[in-house]
Amino acid sequence: MSNPNPFHEQRRSLRRATYSGASLSHPRNPEPVHCIVRNISPDGALLESPLAKYLPMSFWLNLEDDPQPRLCVIAWRSEHQVGVEFSQLIIERGVGRVAVVYGVAVNN
User: Fold this and answer.
1) pTM to 2 decimals?
2) 22: closest CA among 7, 35, 3, 12?
3) CB atoms < 10 A from the CB of 10, how many?
4) Are 51 and 81 in contact (CB under 8 A)?
5) Residues 6 or more apart from 54 whose CB is under 8 A from it?
């Protein structure tokens, strides 16, 4: 039997729609890149930026209303959008260690 919806949802948690500002930072980029968060969940987000196709594969996401930056890995990209996965789960696997990820110490 075939699935009538060719786009099967693969996310671990539902995302909620939003339209909020954020910035991306990476040690190799001296200036932050501003973007719009279109949707977000505890596991990832959809980001919109005119520089989407030039972003590095991983970076720190600084949300407007959250003082804690989130480490992101790009899952997919298009001309002006990127889907990212928050890598906190990967960091948490190293419980009991201090990891330094892109110059930021993460205590586990």
Assistant:
1) 0.72
2) 35
3) 6
4) no
5) none
C-alpha to C-alpha distance for 88 and 102, rounded to whole angstroms: 13
Structure confidence by residue, pLDDT tens digits, 39-70: 999 889 999 999 999 999 999 999 998 888 99
Q: In CATH, which of 2.40.30.110, 3.20.20.120, 2.40.10.220, 3.40.50.2300 is domain 16-107?
A: 2.40.10.220
Spell out the domain ranges in the chain: 16-107
Regarding beta strands 98-101 and 81-86, do their DSSP bridges make them parallel or antiparallel, or are they unpaired?
unpaired
Kindly give the pairing relationship between strand 16-26 and strand 58-63.
antiparallel
